[in-house]
UniProtKB/TrEMBL annotation:
Pfam families: Ribonuc_L-PSP
Domain of life, per lineage: Bacteria
Designated name of the protein: RidA family protein
Alphabetized InterPro entries for the sequence: RutC-like_sf (IPR035959), YjgF/YER057c/UK114 (IPR006175), YoaB-like (IPR035709)
Length: 117
């Protein structure tokens, strides 16, 4: 019999989850344009959730074509703070919606009132 994973509910309450972010305005444009639009939206959403990109703990990225990884990665590297990149996995998904080259899911810790986690 397999063990069951335990979930710490306090950790869940202190995290912001932003699943399924795809481009709207730049749909059909380059991977760079779509990535930049999504990252700008994620930045705004994180701020509304009481956190920022420095607190990202996990990212999953789906690309329609994995050959566009380097193009996406350049936009990602330009967006990330100098403190480094969080754990990130990139997958190929040829079933993304039409004109959608990339989808990004993010989980980030919320900052406490003192600015610390």
């Amino acid at each position: 019999m397999m063990g069951q994973a335990k979930v710490d509910e306090t950790l869940l309450a202190d995290a912001a989850y932003l699943p399924g972010q795809v481009a709207n305005l730049t749909r059909g444009a380059s991977v760079t344009a779509q990535t930049n639009e999504i990252l700008e939206r994620i930045n705004d959403m994180l701020l509304r959730e009481g956190t920022d990109k420095s607190e990202i703990i996990l990212v999953n990225i789906w690309l329609r074509d994995l050959a566009s990884f380097e193009e996406m990665n350049r936009a990602w590297d330009a967006w990330m703070p100098d403190s480094g990149t969080p754990r990130r996995a990139t997958f190929e998904d040829r079933n993304l919606p039409p004109m959608c080259a990339i989808r990004i899911d993010v989980a980030a810790s919320r900052k406490s009132e003192a600015g610390q986690i």
